[in-house]
Amino acid sequence: GPKLREVKYELDTKVSELSHKLGSSEGSNRSLEEETARLRSLNQQLSSSKHELEIQLNEAKAKVLALDEKAQSQGDVIEQQRGRLRDMEAALRQTEQRCADLRDTLASAEGRAKEA
Q1: Would you state the pLDDT for residue 116?
Q2: 77: left (phi over 0), alpha (psi -120 to 50) or beta
């Protein structure tokens, strides 16, 4: 009688609560699965981007290295040219000195010639 009805009522209430909890849990689970899928997809995109950026970084490093080498060899050429220029300037000064000496010699020879 009444005792059974009370037990049935309690069980119905329990079943109702558990059904509600189950529905709620299933909903949460779906949300988590969607979030997991979204994060996996994002992770894949980021991995792909990272790989692309690593390739670009390596290319940029290679270019910098090549430019460094080019600058170094141009610096060497400039240094060689400066050395040649210094040598030529020294040779020019010697030649100018020789010319001055020859002018002096010529002037004194002409002076002696007039006296004679």
Answers
A1: 84
A2: alpha
Kindly report the three-state secondary structure assignment for every residue of 29-50.
HHHHHHHHHHHHHHHHHHHHHH
Quick: pLDDT tens for 28-72.
999 999 999 999 999 999 999 999 999 999 999 999 999 999 999
Angstrom CA distances, 66 to 19, 69, 70, 89, 97, stand at: 70, 5, 6, 34, 47
Q: Judging by beta carbons within 10 Å of its beta carbon (0-12, 13-18, 19+), is residue 57 exposed, middle or buried? A: exposed
CA torsion sign for 38, 40, 44, 49 is: positive
Burial class of 77 by CB neighbour count within 10 A (0 to 12, 13 to 18, 19+): exposed
